[in-house]
Amino acid sequence: AASDVYKRQIQKAINKASNGDEILVLEGTYPENPIVNKSLWIHGHNYPIIDGGGSGDIVTIESSNVTFANFIIQNTSAGSHAVRVESVSYNNTISRNTIQNCEGFGILVDGSIGNNLIIGNDISVKQSGLFLLLSPSNEIRDNNLHNNGEYGIFLESSGNNTLTNNLMTNNKYNFGLECDSLPEFNQNIDNSNMVDGKPIYY
Length: 202
Fold this sequence. Notes:
- The chain is built from one helix and 25 strands.
- The chain has one helix at residues 10-16; strands at residues 3-6, 22-25, 29-31, 35-36, 41-44, 49-51, 59-61, 67-69, 72-74, 81-85, 93-95, 98-100, 105-110, 117-119, 122-123, 130-133, 139-141, 144-146, 151-156, 162-164, 167-169, 173-178, 188-189, 194-195, 198-199.
């Protein structure tokens, strides 16, 4: 796989890349809404800022086998998402990002068939921090979800997810589920997950 270092526009680097390539994004502010439609490893150096300009979703992942890590992601419009994993996408890693100053949601996994790893992110937004919709069999680990205007973590019609060592603090509603069938209630949630300093017993 080839490697590329980018300090201009992330979308141009994605367009230029091939499946399996690595893109290292240098420090700076990137006013754009990149769409990841290839299997890529995209990594920020010294936490570059992706600013969505208050319009729509900021980062959209349409491919599978994507790693997106080490960014500050900010400035969505209400009802939009800082990171959206689309239904055609699975087996992705979203890691060590800071999501802030967003009128909408943090991370949405929307209809994915699973095996996504969401690890080590710090999320504070006006709506819910992490929202799984019709997306089973993911791992959510070591995330800090705080001061979100709605839920810290919300699972809707999404069974068999594993939650470990997530901290939910000072959210309007820290944790919630909405399910249409009994199997969707089956989750692997241990008491390493904390809500306002107290363990979850699920």
